[in-house]
Structure formats: C-alpha cells, structure tokens
Amino acid sequence: MYSEKVMDHFMNPRNVGEIEDASGVGTVGNAKCGDIMKVYLKIDEGIITDAKFKTFGCGAAVATSSMATELVIGKTIEEALKITNRSVAEALDGLPPVKMHCSLLAEESLHAALWDYAKKNNITIEGLEEPVADVHEHDHDHEEGSGCCNA
User: Fold this and answer.
1) Alpha-carbon dihedral of residues 87, 91, 97, 103, nearest 10 degrees?
2) Where residue 27 sits, what CATH number does that domain have?
3) Which of 16, 59, 129, 137 is the most buried (most CB within 10 A)?
4) pTM for this model (two decimals)
5) H or E element at residue 45
6) Is the pLDDT of residue 127 over 60?
7) How many angstroms separate the Cα of 2 from the Cα of each of 9, 64, 68, 97, 151?
C-alpha cells in the first residue's frame, strides 16, 4: 500500500519539532479526518534555512510533513511556493489515492507559514494566497467515504 519512502519518513520522520524564533508558522487541518499540521520556517535573506513540523494524524500525514520540510530547506521563498502536494507525493514515490489529501495538508501548511512570514514582515509574496484553516475547503479531489485518515 505504501512505498518504502513513505514508510521510512513515517518511521523515521525528519525535522520533527518546533523553531522557537520561527520566521513563519503555519497551521492547517482537515476537519473531515482530524489531521492537523503545524510547520515552522526559519527564513534568512529570502532563503529557508530550517523547517520543523508537528503533525497529529496518520502515517501518511507524518510522512508528507517530513518530506515537505526536507524539500523546502535551502530553497528560496519563490522555489518553496512551487512545492505542491503532487511534488511531495512524487518525492515519496507516490501515495494511495485516499491519502493524497495528506500531501495537500503539507503544501497548505508550508504556504500558511510563508503567509505568516509575509504578514510579520509586511511584505507581499507574489502568487501566495491567504491560507484556509480547514484544507478540506480546497480539497476538490476528496470523495465522501474515501477512508480519509482512518485507514
């Protein structure tokens, strides 16, 4: 069901924790399945120098959080904006269709942290939209009764 990379990031998640003096913090959830992701970013001169996460959810939610933080470290803000749920899933060698919403949470939590950074610094980041508290509002691929994170 899960790739070796998903299992590795679930069993040995990278970048777990929080950054006390984070440049931006983003929290998103999915009320339908109860997952909550919180991402902390440290940004220095437009480069993401550190990323940490805390996730309450299933194995796929933990794995996508772990991979998203790995993908974003060392990137510019503009490069970080290009990290999508699909790129997170691809980096994990795929996710089952009923778990794709977990990668959407990872993308949205990164964007929420960037939004927080922009607000704190009174700047506009081109292409960044205001985050939603419940990612299900943007989750158009999710089907009723798909199993969500209960599996």
Assistant:
1) -60
2) 3.90.1010.10
3) 59
4) 0.88
5) none
6) yes
7) 11, 12, 17, 11, 12
Close Cβ partners of 70 (under 8 Å, ≥ 6 residues apart)? 14, 15, 91
Confirm whether 129 is domain-assigned: no
Q: Is 149 a catalytic residue?
A: no
| pLDDT per residue as tens digits for the range 64-78 | 999 999 999 999 999
The tally of domains found in the chain comes to: 1
Question: Does residue 39 lie within any of the structural domains?
Answer: yes
Which of the residues 58, 102, 148, 149 is marked catalytic? 102
| Residue numbers of the domain that contains 84 | 4-122
To the query of whether residue 102 is one of the catalytic residues in this protein, the response is yes
Cα–Cα distances (Å) from 40 to 17, 44, 50, 137, 146, in that order, read 9, 13, 8, 22, 30
Annotated catalytic residue, options 33, 58, 148, 149: 33
Answer whether residue 113 is part of any domain: yes
